[in-house]
Amino acid sequence: MREGVNLIRNIGSILAFVAIAIPANVLAQRGEKDPHVAYAFPAGCQQGESCYIVVGGQYLREAEEAHLSGEGVEVEFVRWYRPMTQGEYNNLRMTLSDVRDALIEDRAALGNTTPPTEEEVLKAAGITDEQRREMEIFLQRDRDPKRQPNEQLVEEVTLKLTVARDAPLGKRELRMLTETSMSNPIWLHIGKWPEVREAEPNDVQPDDVIDQLPIVVNGQIMPGDTDTFSFFARKGTRLVIQAAAREVIPYLADAVPGWFQAIMALTDSSGKEVSYSDSFHYRQDPVIYYEVPRDDRYTVLIRDSLYRGREDFVYRLTLGELPFVTSVFPLGARVDSEVTVELEGWNLASDTLQVKMLPRRHYRPVQWYEAPQYDGTPIRFPMQIDRLPELLDQEPNNDLSSCQEVKTRMIINGRIDYPGDRDIFRLDGFGRLVAEVHARRHGSPLDSVLTITDAQGNEIAYNDDHEDKSQSFLTHHADSHLEVVIPSKGDYYLHVNDAQSKGGKDFIYRLDLRAPEPDYELRVVPSSIIARAGSIVPITVFALRTDDFSEDIELSLVDPPNGFHLDGGIIPGEVDRLRMTLAVPTTPPDAPVILEMEGRARRGKGNSTILTRPGVPAEHMMQAFIWYHLVPVENWNVIISGKPRTMPPFAIVTPDRRLDLIRGKEAILNVRPLVKNIATREMRVEIDDPPKGVTAEIITDHTNKFAVKLNVDAEESEPGVRGNLIFNVYRETTPPPTENDPNPRPRRTDYGLLPAIPFELSQHQATR
Question: Counting CB atoms within 10 angstroms of each CB, which of 51, 219, 306, 658 has the fewest?
């Protein structure tokens, strides 16, 4: 039955977009701004099916192609659409008014006082059915008091997805491409279960699109909207209802809070609420677990907690007797070990699994495992891997008399078993100690608190919450981290408890006890680069440092294609982010290029240990107008335009080592001309995002030779600053005055950026 219903709905959608389709040659016109994608609806499609996806955003008109990561899905561009603007509506309304007045005047001249009909006015004005329909849509939107116009959402592109039966399941990145640009990514999900879309209105009278379980329901929450869906469930069904909202769109830049904060409720046929879930606690999206007590018709409700909504409040509801893992214990294990993992959850084929950790020589901090289920689809879960010895906490250990003795160089896997429980460990060791809890960031509801006391109960160290900047999706950083020096004499105790005195079988943790171990992670922004052939592109690399890691990090491209080169790729030890430049080839490749970056840094006595870490591409997403998050994406994509840029007429001779700048002194940089007859007196340079107190200018002599002079202000400049100088080159000319323009303004011709040059600003001349 669903196939017939869906066919009718799809035909309606197809007719709607065919009626107002935009010619392909219009879509091919060049735009001035890069496309931005705000949402995709529905946010997924089923294996072996075709579906139509509406991508909403801004500057999408020139989009000619959509790129979807992964294999097994064909994407076809169907049409672009934008609702009528206020100006377009006003122009048509004025035209209708003028035509109506003219018709009335003409009829009056003939002695006819009958006013013209609406159809006669429309016909005389040449207003098409399409224009009339768009006027009605405009009025409907304009009269909605809850709708807030948003230019970032107004344009739409319709795509057709054809998904192979064996297409890999999971999340994909979708980007819109023009001839010279690429949009930010938006996520689409390829799923196993049948998919349907909501049908409004369904706020009071539940939608009946659910005619079987399991199923995926796709919907959008508009302002003040509540979506309800009814379905039949039999007694004994262990029902799981999982919402995906932040899993679809993590952050909304212009909303407070900065994401779709979904809540769900489940009611029976009498209207009694039998289950409720929100996204305010440890999961980013709500999940309902409910064992059905009797055959009945149930209704699930979803809405935003603050009754907000708009087109990008997109969600996916997955309903059914589905396998779902609520916790994994332990959260990790030591390299080269084999461990029995306890799986807690619903509808699992087994609650234990024997897993083998990676060997030491293949060490990496996280490894994913699969547990086969009844339907043949495995569930996946991560395990944290370390090199330290490990043990399980031994109950009872909730007071000093029963506390568990532990070494200060090991990992403890434990639980806060019940509300009010605490685990206490006596520390066998002394010296510098880092104690760090891994719980919330790995899906545990535990809101940990760490306290170290002496034998008399005096507090030596305490920590509740610690921000882990590498965890981009966490909005409540509830894991604890403290660093302390344990004296060599006396007894000292480490207490672990929940900040809200909660507990249970899911309240698991992994407690890392170790000496400070400085380390780092890297994030590369932007994750997609659009550049002209032969150009220099600025990028920013963020160093996420832990345990006071303060060494320089040397960056490099991993096996780059010919023509790609990184300049200024050393992040100073005192810096957490650095702008540098990427040179792209003068001959553009035939397709987008995927680059990789890695960092190398030294650690330990004599800097004997080399730490190599990947540069993870990321989107710098804004949350609620203020906060930024580095959200990792799959690939670091580069698109190179076939039209080369205008090359700078000169290059700066790069110093052999880091450029030394002295406060209150000038520095001269030699240049190498790249063309003949340079109009040196018209050339200009400026430092892009300059360090405080440093400016640049071009100086010339009587022979037309020139150089770049750096001026370092003695008062404003800050000694010890290290970074990169990135120069922007342009030519400034002033046309001769004319009678109409006696004081013409200078005209600027930009040549782009020069490769980054590392610098250090010091108080005195460095000793060579």
Answer: 306
